Structures are given as structure tokens and as C-alpha cells.
Amino acid sequence: MIGMDEFKHILQTGAASSMTFKEFLEVEIDRWRRSHKRRMMLVGERYYNGDHDILRRKREVIVEGGARIEDENLPNNKLVDNQFAKMVDQKVNYLLSKPIVYESEDAKYNELLAGIFNAKFQRILKNGGVDAFCGGGSWLYIYIDDKGKLQFQRFAPYEVLPFWKDSEHDELDCAVRVYQVEAYEGRELKTIEKVELFKLDGIERYVLKSGKLIADVDNPSESYIKAGDTEYNWERIPLVFFRTNAQEIPLIKRVKGLQDALNTMLSDLPNGMEENAGGQSILVVKNYDGTDLGEFRRNLATFKAVKVRTLDGADGGLESLQIEVNAANYEVVLKLLKKAIIENAMGYDAKDDRLGGNANQMNIKSMYSDIDLAASEMETEYQASFVQLLELVTAYLSASGNGNYSGKPVTITFNRDIIINEIEIINALVSLGVKVSNETLLGQLPFINNVQKEVERVKEESVSDMAMYSSAFDPSNGKTEE
Hints:
five-stranded antiparallel sheet; three-stranded antiparallel sheet
């Protein structure tokens, strides 16, 4: 939220006015909880889970004096076409669904990294990608469990208030986590707000009551690592921030207006059809009663009928105004809104016309250009975060007696989930004279799960075939000695 220089300045100013550090945190937590940035994080998660503003919409009519009141007699469909969640899942799976490759020049180091960055970690990282798009970034907490094993835990972006040392948001001075738990007080189940302050010298724990921080007696403050009766701390705060873009902008900020418009148009179409289902007309009753403008608007919206009076009071009667709900117009607008959401979210349209028939590789690359550009930015940010993560991992490996790998470079490769035209690529490689091993080719076949086992089977079949052929062409085959 604030930089280190501003942080120190506030503390110095606060010291002059008898503000303690705990009081400073109370003020900052309150300010952060009411901030627009955190509110958008919560909106992002809410929209991802399908809880959109359209679900709270009320149909209102204008009455006398221009006042608006809800009219529960009007159709009020509340339909959600969650394109936002689709874009989030699409972008997360594009970069994080396939296993990430970690490689160094040390074979033992590679083996240790494979054990740490296993399938469980990959799942945590992928789910953290959803947090990052919904909230502008995701937090990964690194700790050592009771068995001495390195573990990872996600923190929701709207739970963490960071205090950065620098404007680039690379180094943490400290961080506050505010989260809720449920606990019984006597027989009553209550929601308790917990606060954890992460500093270099350990974790301080509090309970937040009426905006005040009270020491948590059930979970006292402690160091990060315990080994018997001895406590240790990391050389850096064990929180790593993964962001999708340098500005830490939640994806919902780019598409919320479009998503709301899509939901509104989608809901208004059945509203219009239901309102006009009984003949699709408005009845005009002449010379039976006059009406003011407010009553006119309400009768028009609620009853689809209005009463009017002519100047001479003659010619009473009943007429109808025909109304048509043109579904084709709605369809055009809905299509444009969906396209706009895809473009602003920098995703891709899986139903793109360029994928029709046998799409060539140039068309496929063109379709993926936006999501690929966004993924490159996200990868740059994630690479920087992995540097910090590896510092903690190597410190753990060294402390646990697995060797000192501090400073050893690790190449991190993200495998993007992109559609390709395999035949076109293979033909291009063949034309260039490139030879590819059978093991590599086998690894690309979707119905083969274990490449090494398949290679062994191929070898066994080759040996069996050679034995059969040699037996067939053996001159002594079928002959017996006399």
C-alpha cells in the first residue's frame, strides 16, 4: 500500500503525536479495508464465483413527482453469462496448466527441486493464478511443518496488506494478514477476525475487535521455524507475491462494465418477451380518464395500458400500439459485448472462424496473439517471483543438510497450452532435414502416459520381431540331424 520512505515518515510523525506502532497498524488496516483497491479484489472474486450485480437488480417505475419505486409485477430475469470467469480460467490454464520445468546444471539439485515443486505445488500455483487475475496478485506463504518438510500456503489477495521497501514492490518490510475464522464462545458460533504481522523476526498474532488489535492468547507470537526448543527465522520474510502485471490491476477492472452490460442485455430480452407475451401491444383507452405523467409512466410499465382524454372529450374508444421485441438486435449486441470482453481481457475466442477446417499455424498464432502477449508479461513477473522463492528453497535445502545451492542458476520454463497444427510443423521440420527422436515423438501422443515404458515395449517388440525373422530365414529351420 505505501512505500518504506512514507512508512518511516508516518511513524516519525506519529511518534511526535504519541502514536504507537500498533496504533499505526490499526489505522492502516482500517484505511486499507475501505480502499478501492481492496474492494475491486473482492469484486473480482465475487464475479468469478458468479455473484454479479445483475442478481441484485430491481425493476423500477417512475411515479408522480419523478420518484422511482420498485414494481414487483414486472418480469425481472437475472441471468448471468459469466464470461469473466471464462477469461480467468482460460488465461490461467494457458500458462499454468502444464507442469513447469525447473533445470540447473546440477543433477542432484534438479532432483531436489522436482521433489519440492511437485504436482501439489503446481496445483497451488495454478489456483494462485486465479487469485492473481481476480485480485491483481497472489500471495504464497512458505513454512516448515512439524515433520520438517517445506510447505506452501496460498493467501487471498484481499487478506494481505503489504508494506514495501521499494516502489517496485520487490522487497517487503513487513506484511499484515487479516482473515476470519469461526469459533464458539460458549454455545454461540461467532466470526473472529485474526491478524498476523509478518516481520523478519517472526510472526506477531492479534485479534481485531472494534478496530483495536488485542494480543491473541490462543496463538501467541513466535518465530517462523522451530527445531526442538530452538527457534529460527528466515533471512527474508517468507511471503512471495506473484502478480499478473506490473500495475497489479485486477482483470475485473478491465471488463466489469462490459460483463454487466452483457448480463443486462441477456436479462432484458426475456423481460421484453414476457412483458409483451399477451399480444405484444399497449392498450390506449380514449376519453375514460385523464392521467398525469407519473401515473402514465407507471401504467405503461405495469399494465401496458394508458388512459387519455382528447380536447373535446369525444370519440371514446380502444386502440392498441403494437410492439415488437426484435431478438436479432439483441443477438448482435450480445455478440459484440462478448467479443469486447475477450479483447479487453486479452483472451481468445475458441470459436474463432480462423479455426475452421484445417487451420494453418499462422491463423492459430494470430488468434493467440493477445493472450500470448499478456502471458509473456505475466511470465516476466512470475520469473522474478521465482527468484525470491528459490532463495527460500535453497536456504531450506542447506539447513536440512541437502547441500548448498545458493546462487546456482535455475532455468524456469513455462509450457503454454496452445493449439498447434502438428502435421504442418512436422512437415516443416522434415523439409528442413531436422531429425526428432522416437522418444520425443512418443511423448507428444495423447494416448501414451508413460513414455519410458512405451520405449521399453518398442524395444521388446523389436527383439521379438528380429528373433522371428532370424528363425524364418535360418537354413537349418525345420531340419533335423540324421
